[in-house]
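Thread title: Can someone regenerate the structure for this chain?

I was given the following input by a collaborator and told the matching structure tokens would be attached. They weren't. Posting the sequence so someone can regenerate them.
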Amino acid sequence: MRQWHRTHALAVDAAVAVVAFAAILCGAVAAPHGAHGPHIPRLGLRHLTATTVVLAALASGALVLRRRMPRTVLAATCGLTVVELLAQSGDPRAPVAGSAVIALFTLASRTDRPTTWRVGALTVVVLTAAAMFFGHRPWYAQENLAIFAWTGMAAAAGDAVRSRRAYVDAIRERAERAERTREEEARRRVAEERLRIARELHDVVAHHIALVNVQAGVASHVMDNRPDQAKQALAHVREASRSALEELRATVGLLRQSDDPRAPTEPAPGLGVLDQLIDGFVRAGLPVDLERPAAPQPLPASVDLTAYRVVQEALTNVRKHAGDGARAAVRIVRSETALTVTVRDDGTGGAGQEGAPHGSGGGHGLIGMRERVSALRGTVVTGPRPTGGFQVRVTLPLNGARAGETT
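Best answer:
Regenerated them for you:
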């Protein structure tokens, strides 16, 4: 009904105008006190005049435009009501003021509250004063009080309808905004999850593939002259590929349903298995010096995983870009508020870790490292060292981690 009312507003206003016209004519020919009792009106006791019909037709016809020009229609109906009061030849008079009541209700329902009360008060005063001054009955007659009451109620009812409509529109707008916000939040979370998965897969695969590539190159180079060393390199290839498959299987398994009994339950890697990571680089031909606290304290899970991935990515870059004969050093320092991880090397190809040619090759290692650290509100400083080589320094705050989320 509300939708039909909005799409056929002109037809509804025309129907209201016809009903108002019929009601005014019925009120003009009806006597307020019939033969069957003082409160039972009776039709046909008065005669219609041409002036009454014309004024009723004009006042009712103006109501067709009450939505498009509410102020003009109200002024017109009030003017016709005053004309009817002046033109009447006897008492009682025709209820042309009913059209002004409808026009005032429309104006009140379509404007703001201050305007409603100002225009409503002016309408009540003008129509009531005109009825009292130009009527044949005393100023306290019930017809005069009826005009006062009906115009006042029309203003109040219109303001109530406007308030109710505004309240419903506000609720609807709030619901639509909440729906849009939920959709945007869902899209944002999906994008963040895709980025996290891509970053995790890169960190898992790139490290081991880099080691496999190096050892495969060594095996190919010494296959003819030193077969024993080639076999050792191939053994390292097999071990690195097996480790890559295990970590990849564990990472992909996290995407399964939580109730899947085949999903892996082992914890994510952290600084507790840092010795195994460094041992793999040492066996691949990269000497690494490790300096960390003798009695490490538990870390938040997110900080522990990020620190491990930072060391993994930094050492992978050293192995790929620092050149032959390079050495690396890993230093981990924990304070009360932060964990600092520093990885440096003394190689000759340090600039390639972030600039050309490595940067121009589209690598995502340092980008993923910065994304991980930024997610924890940490800082990353990378660049060549004054004495040669490259350095990665990461600071991870500990205060922002949730209580109890430790490994």
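The radius of gyration is 44 Å.
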